[in-house]
Specification:
Elements lengths: L2 H11 L3 H8 L5 H13 L3 H14 L5 H17 L7 H13 L3 H17 L3 H8 L9 H17 L3 H18 L2 H12 L6 E5 L2 E5 L1 H9 L3 E4 L4 E3 L4 E3 L4 H13 L4 E2 H9 L6 H17 L4 E5 L3 E6 L5 E5 L7 H7 L7 H8 L3 H13 L4 E3 L6 E3 L20
Parallel strand pairs: 3-9
Antiparallel strand pairs: 1-2, 1-9, 3-4, 4-5, 6-8, 7-8, 10-11
């Protein structure tokens, strides 16, 4: 490898893409194409970066399997940053195996980090943890160690393990300072700030207050009956009843909880659950049916008793009942929580991350666009959606992945 290629590679490792381009910008040999592609990726021109890396992979000869594998890993990183979640994960796995076979353990570790980041993004926390496991005691360069610790912190945050998250973030901060890469240090600071801003609101008896993530963790570990409006579930410390696919039942449960220990009138329940402005006997009959269904769903946690003017929720073992709501009232909060990372998302990638249908995500995006909350650029398959950060977002309670007891 000649001196210019070596110098350019060192500049990229130090987070200096312009310095790297000064050395290889006019060269078209395979190593130079690869380094130019990585430099363009660091500068944010992902389309040009992808083209250069594909050209580099083709230019490397059949005996240069390691170099081609490195190009595949770089392409995978670009796909992840550009939220192309349909990029073939098998290609990354094959490249990682090639790098491990030839002893390039640092780039193989980077490939594992990328694999784990993708799994974390789509909420597959157990698989992300398994992908990271081989790297636990492996010596890594500071930048790779920082990326590894960030993923560990992300998994802990999604699981509401705030003590473990803070420990991982401290390790990430140390590694980022050793690496001396400003962008990496800024990323660590951004994740750390998520632990110090409100993650949700606690609503009790009509009063509400913001909760930090560690306070939410403590709430879930308590004996309180929590109607969780972030995940549309009803939970205690040992039991979770999901109403995510039963929006009417969840609306009734939330209305009953917000009024506890008092009852809720039938007219208010009809308005909250069915959005009925004018009610008749058919609405009241449907309310009785839905209350019966909710009573059956919550049988192990609470009872619902009829009163003279409506219904009241009666916990079986919990000393209190509370509502956990998103930090701000927004339409389609889960979509906004993903878009709040500042990246441009395709609707298909959002559907993969949220494990829902593309049409459902498209409807949500159209509603948010009509409200001026998101914007898009491009047409057809190239359309991407993004939004400025929304105050109070993102919160791990709205992102994919199971919480304790799920």
């Amino acid at each position: 490898m000649d001196s210019l290629i070596t110098a350019a590679a060192r500049a990229l490792a130090a987070g200096d893409p312009l310095g790297a381009l000064k050395r290889v910008a006019l060269r078209d040999d395979a190593p130079a194409l690869a380094l130019r592609g990585i430099a363009m990726a660091q500068l944010g021109d992902l389309v040009r970066a992808k083209t250069l890396l594909k050209s580099a992979a083709r230019a490397f000869g059949p005996r240069e399997a390691v170099a081609r594998a490195r190009c595949v890993v770089a392409e995978a990183e670009i796909a992840l940053v550009s939220r192309d979640l349909s990029w073939p994960a098998k290609a990354l796995d094959t490249a990682r195996a090639t790098l491990e076979k030839h002893g390039d353990r640092f780039n193989a570790a980077h490939a594992r980090n990328l694999e784990a980041r993708r799994l974390l993004l789509i909420g597959r926390l157990d698989e992300a943890e398994r992908a990271l496991f081989p790297l636990g005691s492996t010596p890594l360069p500071p930048a790779s160690r920082a990326a590894h610790e960030l993923i560990v912190a992300g998994i802990a945050i999604r699981r509401l393990q705030t003590k473990a998250a803070r420990a991982a973030l401290a390790g990430a901060a140390r590694a980022a300072r050793q690496a001396g890469i400003p962008a990496l240090m800024a990323e660590v600071d951004s994740v750390a700030r998520a632990l110090d801003i409100p993650a949700a609101r606690l609503i009790v008896g009509g009063d509400e207050r913001p909760l930090l993530l560690d306070e939410v963790e403590a709430l879930f570990a308590s004996e309180a009956l929590v109607v969780d409006a972030c995940r549309n579930v009803v939970r205690t410390a040992g039991t979770v009843v999901s109403l995510a696919t039963r929006p009417v039942l969840f609306a009734l449960a939330r209305a009953l909880t917000e009024a506890w220990p008092n009852d809720v009138s039938r007219s208010l329940l009809l308005a909250r659950a069915f959005r009925a402005k004018h009610t008749d006997e058919s609405h009241r009959a449907r309310l009785r049916v839905e209350i019966g269904r909710l009573r059956a769903e919550l049988a192990v946690l609470a009872d619902i008793s009829a009163t003279e003017r409506g219904f009241a929720l009666l916990p079986r073992n919990a000393g209190r009942i509370v509502v956990l709501a998103p930090p701000v009232d927004e339409q389609n909060p889960a979509v906004l929580a993903l878009l709040a990372d500042g990246e441009a998302w395709a609707s298909s990638a959002l559907a993969i991350a949220l494990d829902t249908s593309p049409r459902t995500v498209q409807r949500a995006l159209e509603q948010l666009a009509a409200a001026g909350k998101v914007q898009f650029y491009g047409r057809g398959r190239a359309r991407r959606w993004m939004t400025p950060p929304v105050p109070g977002f993102p919160t791990s309670l709205l992102l994919p992945g199971p919480l304790p007891s799920d």
